[in-house]
Amino acid sequence: MKLAVLMDPIEKIKAYKDSTVAMIKSAQEQGWTCEFFTQSDLVCRDGRAFADVSSIVIKDLHQPNWANTKRMGEKALSEFDIILMRKDPPFDMEYIFATYALELAEKEGVLIANKPQSLRDANEKFYTLNFAQCCPETLVSRNMAPLKAFWETHRNVIFKPLEGMGGRAVFHVGEDGHNLGVILEMLTHGETVSTMAQKYIPEIKTHGDKRILLIDGEPVPFALARMPAKGELRGNLAVGATGKVVEITERDRWICENLSPTLKEKGLYFVGIDVIGDYLTEINITSPTCIQEIANETGLDIAGDLMRCLAKKV
């Protein structure tokens, strides 16, 4: 099996905790040949996609020189059996152009995970509205009046941009409404950019923000509960949250059952959903993480299960 990975520059990767690296390592252990490239390596010519690729052989994830790499030159993406799209946000026009390139390879028979069309279709926050039965009360608008009215109704609200990652620009406005106006002005860029409002879920403080991984619509039985740092409300590791591995609940499984048919239909083979309390808050499809954190605590071969799942679809 020939695997290629579209990823961020390798020098930025923290191998000991990186989910993409876990996938490559698992593929390597299964005897696959593994190569990688970045967005800047892509070239599309006469209706076909190419990339300047490098080979990778992983040695020790906990060493500074954790992998051997070698530039292999330009190859047609159609030479690979599977390509993983693991580029982190921002989800900008360059990201979209990359999905167009991957789609050219897909037309030549390459399995792309996750499916390029679905990456464009499913905004990680907005897409939750397709599963409203699983979510807290939610509003999306760029107009101040309905956003303010939502706060007036619930008096305890989270406001966040529809784009972004790592908990950036997420605001909690409580009973006093402190700074509500200026927060909404900033997030909506003066009523020109849509913003999400969600009823605040107090369980974030006691049970954290759970990251649940799904492989082809089936949940991994353990999740990573990310507990906010002292004085924080965001359960994101990037802003100091600490992770605790927990078994998923019956409610979690119910949420996954609601999502599963759609994820399978849309070729979203690897997904990370965020659940706070009893509610779905995000569906992460671009570059879900937490494989190594969960696997190290449980012994589950999450990356291996994913690679075997993808191999069966080729």
From TrEMBL:
* Catalyzed chemical reaction(s): gamma-L-glutamyl-L-cysteine + glycine + ATP = glutathione + ADP + phosphate + H(+)
Ranges for the ATP-grasp domain?
A: 125-311
Q: Which domain of life is it from?
A: Bacteria
Part of which pathway? Answer: Sulfur metabolism; glutathione biosynthesis; glutathione from L-cysteine and L-glutamate: step 2/2
Instruction: State its cofactor.
Output: Mn(2+); Mg(2+)
Signal peptide limits: none
Which InterPro entries did the record assign?
ATP-grasp (IPR011761), ATP_grasp_subdomain_1 (IPR013815), Glut_synth_pro (IPR006284), GSHS_ATP-bd (IPR004218), GSHS_N (IPR004215), PreATP-grasp_dom_sf (IPR016185)
Q: Sorted alphabetically, which keywords does the UniProt record give?
A: ATP-binding, Glutathione biosynthesis, Ligase, Magnesium, Manganese, Metal-binding, Nucleotide-binding
Q: State its Enzyme Commission number(s).
A: 6.3.2.3
- Please tell me one Gene Ontology term that the record gives under cellular component: cytoplasm
Q: Which GO terms describe its molecular function?
A: ATP binding; glutathione synthase activity; metal ion binding
Similarity comment = Belongs to the prokaryotic GSH synthase family.
PANTHER family membership: GLUTATHIONE SYNTHETASE, RIBOSOMAL PROTEIN S6 MODIFICATION PROTEIN
Full protein name: Glutathione synthetase
Which source organism does the UniProt entry give? Legionella impletisoli
Instruction: Cite the source lineage.
Output: Bacteria, Pseudomonadati, Pseudomonadota, Gammaproteobacteria, Legionellales
